[in-house]
Amino acid sequence: MPNAKLEGFYKDSERYPSAMVNVTNHCNLSCRHCFIFREGNPNEVPLSIRDEMADDAMLLTLKELRDRHGIKSMMWMGGEPMLRNKLLRKGIKLFKSNTITTNGTVPLIDFGPDLLYVISLDGPEEYNDSIRGEGVFRKVIKNLEGLPEGFKSPFQVQSVVTKFNQHMLEELVIQLMETPVRWMTFSFLVPTAGGESSPDAWQTNEEREEAVRIVMSLKEKYPGFVRNTGRSLELMLSPYAERVTNACLARANILPLYLEGDHFTTPFCCYGNDVDCSRCGAWAVFHIAAKQERNGVVSWEE
User: Fold this and answer.
1) How far apart are CA 10 and CA 206, in angstroms?
2) What range defines the domain where residue 46 resides?
3) One-letter-per-residue 3-state SS of 217-234
4) 29-55 residue pLDDT tens
5) Distance between CA atoms of 271 and 45, rounded to whole angstroms?
6) 79 located within any domain
7) Beta strands in the chain (DSSP E)
8) Which of 44, 70, 132, 279 could form a disulfide with 15 if both were Cys (CB 3.0 to 4.6 A apart)?
9) Would 299 be classed as within a structural domain?
């Protein structure tokens, strides 16, 4: 039977309230900034999805990990997780809280009101399709507009903010507010270590601050639609950003499970093995930091 391969920071004895799992390494898109398929991450794609870990073995392994680590919340990812919708139907029953992260081009299934879909769109149509593929934006919107009346599973859009799209974000917000999308969040590009040459990445956190302030202004202008909290965005500014990433509460709270052959393996963090933590802009990192501060667990003030 497949076993979870826990290495590095992750220990059998640790408790993790949340986990993320890549249920397949197959995807119907090839997005330019996808962190799953970066070199150095566990992401080998077999010829057939049938050659990946079988549903029963994966579910049994996830159940054992749930019991071992006290996992309450699971984020289902890929590849494209909706390519294994039969597995998802069974898997979401194992956890109290579930989120499916999808590119939105595969039809969604109504898994009930307790599951959240997070759908990836990274800018207005022209920009989004330049990195995700021609026709993707319209296909996603068509899928959402075609959901049956009474569809119970809520859904939101998450957009990755980059150096290239930061001035297009309001246009995206306005476009999405005219669709069935109820709200959206912004995450910021997580660059690779030594990846200064990437055209999408800011050289420094100081350079990124303009983009953060753009999202802060969108939060103020569209408070019911932009779901990032004001404090989580503020923590991305100086002097807080590196205090947050140096402590990275996400690594202590989220167990990442990447699919590798017939087992799961745990990379350095949810974004893989090659991240530049000092310039991290992941939504989860700053969301957890703001939440733990609000609960009195930690303070980011000196």
Assistant:
1) 31
2) 4-294
3) HHHHHCCCCECCCHHHHH
4) 777 777 766 676 666 767 778 888 999
5) 18
6) yes
7) 4-5, 18-22, 73-77, 97-102, 115-120, 155-161, 184-188, 254-260, 263-265
8) 70
9) no
Average pLDDT in the chain = 91
DSSP assignment string, 75-130: EEESS-GGGGHHHHHHHGGGSSEEEEEE-S-SPP----TTEEEEEE--SSHHHHHH
The label of the residue with tokens 């989580």 reads 232
pLDDT digits (tens, 9 = 90+) for 241-286: 999 999 999 998 999 999 888 888 888 888 888 889 999 999 999 9
Q: Look at the chain and report how many structural domains it folds into.
A: 1
Distance CA 198, CA 33 (A): 10
Q: How far apart are CA 103 and CA 259, in angstroms?
A: 19
CB 190 within 8 A of CB 281: yes
Residue type at position 25? N
Q: Would you say residue 11 has pLDDT above 90?
A: no
Answer for the pair 55, 78: CB distance below 8 angstroms, yes or no. no
Dig out the tokens for 216 from the structure.
């802060």
Residue with tokens 């049938």: 50
Residue with token string 């990442």: 256
Return the residue matching tokens 């959240």.
116
Tokens encoding 36: 């799953």
